[in-house]
C-alpha cells in the first residue's frame, strides 16, 4: 500500500494555551507531505478534513481508501480538490485523463471510484490535495488560473500586496463544502491575510510553497487574544481550527494554498480582527 493517512484529533483552545513549541507542531503542522511514490496526509477531526500530498515518481498512484473512512473507495462519501505545484502531469478519473499544468486545480466529486495520479514526463509532479465529506455528487472539473475568480488586495506600503485566485469556490465550480484557492504575494510583500480573522463556521488549512531553501514563513494561529506561532518551510501545511486566526509573514514573498470546509460556502463569511486588538 502506498498511502499513509494519519489521524489528528481536535484541540480545545484552552488546552492549546499550554502547548509548548513541539506539541503545537505535532498537533497542527504537516511536514514531509511529498514523499516519492507515496500518498501521505492527515485525517483531521476538524470537520473531518483530509490534507495531504501526492508525489508520483516511478509509478502511477491510485487514490486508495483508508481505514479512517470505512468506505469501499476513497470518494464513496467525499469530494476531492487537487492543485498541482510541480511539473505538468495527468490525473485519470474513472478512465478519463485530465492534464493538470502547474498551478491548476482539479475538482473530483463524490462517487468517483478510481483516481490515478501519473508521473510527469516533464519533471517532478507535486500534487497537493484536500478532501471533505460530501452529501451529493458534482461533476469533475479542471480549473486553470484563467478560470479563477481573482481578487487583488493589499499594498506595497503595508507589505501585503497579493492576488487571490479562487479556484474551487461556488462561483467557479459546484462543490458540497470544499473550497480551495491560491494566493500569490507580490515581490516585496510578506504578509498574508491581514487583517486576520476567524470563521466559526469553517476550519481551514494552509500550504506554503515558492519558498527558497533558506526562507521561512512564521504562521500565526490561536484565539485573537491568545496567539501562537509556528515556523514553516517550503511544502509544509498547517491546520487551522475554526476558533483560530490564520495568517503568516515570510522572510520573502511566497505563495500559499488555502482550503476549507464546514457550515457554508460563503467565502466572505469571516469575523475580522483588528491588528491592534490581537495579543
UniProtKB/TrEMBL annotation:
Signal peptide: none annotated. Zn(2+) binds at residues 197, 199, 204, 246. It is an enzyme of class 5 (isomerase). Its cofactor is Zn(2+). Gene3D superfamilies: Jelly Rolls, pectin degrading enzyme 5-keto 4- deoxyuronate isomerase, domain 1. It catalyses: 5-dehydro-4-deoxy-D-glucuronate = 3-deoxy-D-glycero-2,5-hexodiulosonate. Pfam families: KduI (PF04962). SUPFAM superfamilies: RmlC-like cupins (SSF51182). GO terms for molecular function: 4-deoxy-L-threo-5-hexosulose-uronate ketol-isomerase activity; zinc ion binding. Pathway: Glycan metabolism; pectin degradation; 2-dehydro-3-deoxy-D-gluconate from pectin: step 4/5. Coiled coil: none annotated. Catalyzes the isomerization of 5-dehydro-4-deoxy-D-glucuronate to 3-deoxy-D-glycero-2,5-hexodiulosonate. PANTHER family: 4-DEOXY-L-THREO-5-HEXOSULOSE-URONATE KETOL-ISOMERASE. Belongs to the KduI family. This is 4-deoxy-L-threo-5-hexosulose-uronate ketol-isomerase. It comes from Echinicola vietnamensis (strain DSM 17526 / LMG 23754 / KMM 6221).
